[in-house]
Amino acid sequence: MPVVAPGQQEGQEPIPRHGVSPLPRSTSYYGSRPNTGESPSRVTSGVRLREAFAAPPARPMTAVSTSVSLAPSKTTRMRSTMLEDPSTLDKPWVTTKDPYARIAYILTYSVAFLGIAASAVRCYFGYKSVPLINGNLCMVLDEEFTSDTDTTFGPNGNWVREVQLGGFGNGEFEMTTSSTNNSYTSNGYLYITPTLTSNMIGADAVFNGYTYNLTDCTYNSTNPMTNPGSSNTTSFDATAYYQACGAVSNSTTGTIISPIQSARITTRNKASIRYGRVEVRAKVPRGDWLWPAIWMLPVNNTYGPWPMSGEIDIMESRGNGRSYPDQGIDYVRGSLNWGPLSFLNAVSKTFGWWTQRRTDYGEGFHTYTLEWTESFLRIYVDTRLHYMLQLSFNEPFFTRGNFPSVVENGTQPIVLQNPWINGTNATPFDQPFYLILNLAVGGTNGWFPDNAGNKPWLDNSKTAMRDFANAQNSWYPTWGSDGESSSFIVDSVKMWEIC
Could you say which of 311, 395, 408, 484 is catalytic? Predict the structure, then answer.
């Protein structure tokens, strides 16, 4: 119901407010009132449709309306009543200085200076404490592998292939051959490449009914006791000879032919040093259960059979990937093997390693170095900062080993004797050693620990080699298909002797 203003009669025009002019009415906000008939015309309906989507017209100005100015207006900031007059603020530190401020200042900079000075002193004495080779070094071997394969391994070459299949005391699963399939030079590099024996004699022959003889077996010439001047008086071991030079596969007993063929080359009777330096630039192979090594053995077993006369491992590695739990291809290791008995090796007291955190040693070439004098021995990769082993000969090795006075060999007690009693602190590492490069596969000596990395054999199993061969489908694909990624590739070998 419409509301009527006071004093106004119904039906009269509304009385305008005082001072406000009345505005004309329009029948519709959008123009004329729409047709209210029961049958609106087509034209009128079209006009209304267009009006529905049209923008509304500008609102008319009223008598009290004012236009909005877009120009910025100046305003005066009100002064805060919470702030005091700066001239009245109390600043005691301006008039009276804290006596401890100067002490704190001097103390801070003094401590910083002392820290820098102490760091410099430590760096200096650290640098001075690093033992270095003093004296002249004479080149003994400088091998760049620029000659062809026949020359490298020929009578006038620097290298000799060792040919055996007896496992070399480690229960290794490869046989080493003189074949150019397994050791050769190409484009200035030496390649030691593992291949499958089944490619030569067939898979069935590996497991049963085949006799394999190495007609060029080198056991007689490479066994240390055959060297002139050796103090090892052990008689010739015929059983060891036949085990090293031949094998018979038998499915009943579980014995098989070595499933892998590889190579082991040495500088024996070619080049050796007693104190000096060795550098080998090489790239390690990639593939499960591959075991590359750069190492040295004594020319003569002066103090007795291994490990009494010592062994120097410049580099050993595992071809297993970075995820392998017991140091895979991203680790390299250096060590010394020594002990007073053939079954008592104190290598656990003289070994170390270095690791790559973001890559591995199969990605490129690295230089593995031995520095060796009568007072110290150091093994490192690429730089002395990356040393795997640094050992001062400051006490006899028998004392260093802290061996018991009596040991058990089965059920028989043995009173331990010092085999180096007449030597120096460097003994047994005071004799000429020669260099060995080889690529082994597997083994039962613990280099690949049981139950690590899905290892397909157990070290104490009598069928360890057969178990490894039966798992070929699991490890062989990791070796790559080109034959190069699984190869031990050597760029150069240099040997110097202190002279």
Answer: 311
